[in-house]
Design brief:
Blueprint (H helix, E strand, L loop, with lengths): L4 H7 L5 E4 L2 E4 L4 H10 L3 E6 L11 H12 L3 E6 L21 H15 L12 E4 L1 H4 L4 H7 L6 H6 L1 H8 L7 H21 L1 E7 L3 H15 L4 E5 L12 E2 L2 E2 L9 H9 L3 H11 L4 H13 L5 H31 L8 H7 L5 E5 H6 L1 E2 H7 L6 H9 L3 E3 L2 E2 L6 E2 L9 E6 L3 E8 L1
Parallel strand pairs: 3-4, 3-6, 4-5, 6-7, 10-16
Antiparallel strand pairs: 1-2, 8-9, 11-14, 12-13, 12-15, 15-16
The protein binds one RNA strand through α12, α14 and α18.
Length: 437
RNA sequence: GGUGGGGUUCCCGAGUGGUCAAAGGGAACAGACUGUAAAUCUGUCGGCGUAGCCUUCGAAGGUUCAAAUCCUUCCCCCACCA
């Protein structure tokens, strides 16, 4: 018999572990029931996504992969987008005020998100994933109905005992608004609704969602007498404590227009050794036994970065397809391998189509443009002063040659190919300047 | 509504009339070392620029040769009390 999805997730570290009485236990509301249900029948699992952005980012990959593993095991994923709850803001996690989204915007984002998700889970076929929006049911309810059907089932004592609320009550600086305080009831009701209307047995979520999820299983028990299941995955951190999923302060998006396949690939290849094994388990479908082998090989020859290469290739292929991966690989090879000598416009364009570029006038170049101006105008540096400091510190290369002269003026003699100059700051940040008449 | 405490450069946070573009820490960026890793070390970190100048310390006014620092009004946050 095939490995159950429960064991698969557990082997990959996709089920959170918590300390209970000195022992490590899995963060599942009822492990026995969960195992039993998952191995005996087809069940539905839902995870909520925030539709406030036009694209998902790598921080969303863990829930996405979780759903994908369930589907591969024959279960049905339900993607819930929080058209209603997204307006309020979950007090678990951070507490910045959210902006209200209008419906058109949400619809547009939902479409985009669905397209990205369909690279991981199928919305067609036998156990097709479905997408639902909680605005469709929460938006219907009146406040009085709400208090009667949902509020009645929760004591305030229960609610303030939840970690997400308690921490805010204890925090004298922060406080918690009534709106945020109510959030867990909305999420509980989502689960109740999906349980009764869509036969959804399981809710998945990040470990910070535990309180909200159990509020849901409690509500279901009280109103139906039945037992639903909650399961949480760990929140990703990097080994060195940096924020996962950010590069130079920017989110790594799944949308190729927001984060190019090249940048996407580069993000993964820069993973730390200490993270790469976990990442392979989390973000690729490579079997865990193979991952062990890959990592052993990597440990023998760390400088070859085989594990990082494999990771980057796997994830990029799923998100951007084989074509996207190949173009990322070509660009990587040129940028980190050879010089730019002898390349034509066509080749440069092809290889660097993912690298940010700026158009400038050829006539201006012939007259001479200082490197400082160019760095500032392309947006590589925020100001001329920053550009000056960067060059002084040896951080700028033109066509892969480090610049020593702060006052360097570039002319058409500096062109790498017919019409282009390649700027680089640091080791990895590239920018293509194209000159036209 | 009352009382008290606050709002400082990306974040935290010092600074109570000139020596403040503003301590310290974090983040970030660059350099060295490496393996496009981590750790470490070094430098930078408001803008323009050779010296120097310009714009910042919740907002607007005012006092002063001189204000983040004093005064007035206003806005916002927090705590306690009612």
């Amino acid at each position: 018999m095939a490995k159950s999805v429960f064991d698969e997730l557990n082997d990959r570290g996709l089920i959170n572990k918590v300390d209970r009485d000195g022992k490590q236990i899995l963060a599942v509301t009822n492990e026995v029931a969960a195992r039993e249900a998952l191995s005996s029948r087809k069940v539905s699992i839902y995870i909520g996504f925030d539709p406030s952005a036009t694209s998902l980012h790598v921080g969303n990959l863990v829930p996405i992969m979780t759903l994908a593993h369930f589907q591969r095991a024959g279960h049905r994923p339900i993607v819930l987008v929080g058209g209603a709850t997204g307006m309020i803001g979950d007090p678990s996690g951070r507490s910045t005020e959210r902006t209200l989204l209008d419906n058109d915007e949400v619809d547009k984002n939902v479409e985009a998100i669905k397209k990205q998700l369909s690279r991981f889970v199928s919305f067609e076929g036998e156990n097709a994933a479905i997408m639902v929006n909680n605005a469709d049911w929460i938006g219907q309810k009146s406040y009085l109905e709400w208090l009667r059907d949902v509020g009645k089932h929760f004591t305030v004592n229960y609610m303030i005992a939840k970690e997400s609320v308690r921490s805010r009550l204890e925090d004298r600086e922060q406080g918690i608004t009534y709106t945020e305080f109510s959030y867990m009831l909305l999420q509980a009701y989502d689960f109740f609704h999906l349980f009764t209307e869509f036969d959804c047995l399981i809710q998945g979520g990040g470990s910070d969602q535990w309180g909200n999820i159990t509020a849901g299983t409690d509500l279901i028990r009280k109103r139906t007498g039945k037992e639903a299941i909650g399961i949480t995955y760990p929140l990703i951190t990097t080994a060195s404590g940096e924020k996962f999923g950010k590069s130079a302060g920017n989110a790594i998006w799944l949308d190729g227009d927001l984060t190019s396949p090249y940048s996407f690939y580069q993000y993964w290849i820069n993973s730390e050794d200490a993270d790469v094994e976990r990442y392979l388990k989390f973000f690729s479908f490579v079997p865990v036994e193979d991952i062990a082998t890959i990592c052993e090989e990597h440990a023998k020859d760390p400088h070859k970065r085989e594990a990082q290469k494999r990771l980057a290739a796997e994830v990029t292929r799923v998100v951007h397809g084989e074509e996207g991966l190949q173009s990322a690989l070509r660009a990587t090879q040129v940028l980190f391998g050879s010089t730019l000598d002898g390349l034509s416009d066509k080749e440069l364009n092809e290889i660097f189509k993912d690298v940010p570029s700026t158009d400038m006038k050829m006539t201006d170049l012939k007259a001479g443009i200082t490197l400082i101006d160019m760095l500032a105008d392309t947006g590589m540096c925020k100001s001329k002063g920053e550009a000056r400091r960067l060059i002084k510190g040896g951080g700028v290369s033109v066509n892969n040659n480090r610049v020593e002269d702060i006052e360097l003026t570039l002319t058409d003699a500096n062109l790498a190919s017919e019409t282009m100059i390649m700027l680089r700051s640091g080791k990895k940040r590239y920018h293509l300047v194209k000159f036209q008449n």
